[in-house]
Amino acid sequence: MMTVSHSLDERAVAYERMADALSYLGDTWQEWPDLATAAKSVGLSPSHFQREFTRWAGISPKQYQSALAHAAAGDLLREGASVLDATLETGLSGPGRLHDLFIAHEGLSPGEAKAGGKGADLVLGRAPTPFGEGAWLISPRGLVALGFIDENPPERTGFEHQGRTEENAFADLAGRYPGASIRRDDAEAEQMARRVFEAGEPLPVALYGTPFRRQIWRALLDIPMGTVSTYGALAKASGNPKAARAVGAAVGANPISWFIPCHRALAADGRLHNYHWGVARKRAMLTLERACAA
């Protein structure tokens, strides 16, 4: 069976701790906790935490804190604060991005897209991602769906966790395409994971769904990394300003998590809620993106 390199496997295993670390640093960055204190918050030694965080995020814990400070300073300046008031020592020399991938246009005819996968031959497999173990659904045209597996999710104070076992995650994805023929092949899923997360190759996608939903999914790609939008703004951008509720449903039905960034869409009140794969994962995605985009 083909396996991905240790770096991606390690990032998948580290996701739970790193989500907690991102939350802790996001809450305490103004106090600038030192490495030992931050490491203690997730039960690791300082050296282990430094290595694991940097390997997972592409930037060190200190760079992450500095990026949060840099972003906050930018917000203050945009709100009219003086440079003196907003100046913070960032120490950031160019953080690495978790990903910088090109999403190819889906290679489906309008009829195929509207058919919802009826008659399609799909592969379902398990392979690691930087946000934990992934459930990958693949067609010969490209990635059809990506979800996440959380076996035995830990108790985590302050998090809404919507963990799904492998069985439940697979059933979730397969249930969206009841007319398709689906077989399991972890090796093919792992091959795709390695290509897109490690080699940075273009990711072809096959978006099955109504024209309206596919329009909204494509609009999500226009939200810049490190920023967020609202369902109302997406509705206006799609030419349907009164369709915020329908847009919310379309965003919630997005099949390809992370790559089609539905995590960047928020309700009008700005709360992080109703993310299909867990609010903790959405928070990790957003905080990391903002830091890496700074």
Largest sheet: 4 strands, mixed
> What is the share of helical residues?
40-55%
The strand order across the widest sheet is: 3-2-1-4
Q: Quick one: how many beta strands?
A: 6
Q: How many helical stretches?
A: 12
Detail the topology: elements first, then pairings.
Blueprint: H1 6-28, H2 35-41, H3 46-57, H4 61-78, H5 83-86, H6 110-114, E1 121-129, E2 132-139, E3 142-149, H7 166-175, E4 181-184, H8 186-198, H9 211-220, E5 229-230, H10 231-237, H11 244-252, E6 265-266, H12 279-293
Parallel strand pairs: 1-4, 5-6
Antiparallel strand pairs: 1-2, 2-3
Description:
This is methylated-DNA--[protein]-cysteine S-methyltransferase. Residues 19-116 form the HTH araC/xylS-type domain. Its EC number is 2.1.1.63. There is one protein chain. The protein is an alpha/beta fold. The protein has a domain at 6-86: Arc Repressor Mutant, subunit A (Orthogonal Bundle). It is built from twelve helices and six strands. It has helices at 6-28, 35-41, 46-57, 61-78, 83-86, 110-114, 166-175, 186-198, 211-220, 231-237, 244-252, 279-293; strands spanning 121-129, 132-139, 142-149, 181-184, 229-230, 265-266. The strands form two sheets. Strands 3-2-1-4 form a four-stranded mixed sheet. Strands 5-6 form a two-stranded parallel sheet. α1 (6-28) crosses α12 (279-293) and α4 crosses α12 (279-293). The chain starts with 5 loop residues before the first helix and ends with a helix. The model is unreliable at 1-5, 81-101 and 154-161 (pLDDT under 50).
